């Protein structure tokens, strides 16, 4: 089965280079050169992933990303010429799944694309699991109906906040959440730099669910950005 990718890049040379390489890797590539064109294509056709440049004419990449996230969890990988941590964090905070900074190697890009598509398939919850409200990731299982977390069949005692944090990550496996987003979603309060609260809860949760909390597999830290569910 050929995976289809929407490539949104206004630089013709980069677009042609990426399209040529990924086409040779077996992907079906559809190109758009501005945000408005890309959004119209997205509405008409089905894709497995979007490669998105941030600096676009007519409709910029960030606005395009926000529009997509209103209706779709499709994997989105940002192509950015900006090397600032703030720009990367902003992109991830709005719902991008990954980013790669220009200039990039085609081998690395293909690896990131394959990883993003694999995550989307690996963590998609089947209709049966959605009905049962049970999610399993590697050795961990969350029973959302009965508020139970277990590892290899053994129940783990977690607090309500710890359960809520884990549920947030398990039900949004492709997303990276900033500390501000986690605080707002879990505590339902405005975030005033309450990093210590998040840090303490993350440490306690890791101590309970990880084999080695200093080398976490389930809750990954993206330094400078936030937290996301690990890959298995």
TrEMBL record:
Residues 132-231 bind DNA. Residues 132-231 form the OmpR/PhoB-type domain. The modification 4-aspartylphosphate is found at residue 53. Keywords: DNA-binding, Phosphoprotein, Transcription, Transcription regulation, Two-component regulatory system. Pfam families: Response_reg (PF00072), Trans_reg_C (PF00486). CDD domains: trans_reg_C. The keyword Aminoacyl-tRNA synthetase does not apply. Gene3D superfamilies: 3.40.50.2300, 6.10.250.690, Winged helix-like DNA-binding domain superfamily/Winged helix DNA-binding domain. Residues 4-117 form the Response regulatory domain. The keyword DNA-binding applies. This is Response regulator. It comes from Paenibacillus phytorum. The lineage of its organism: Bacteria, Bacillati, Bacillota, Bacilli, Bacillales.
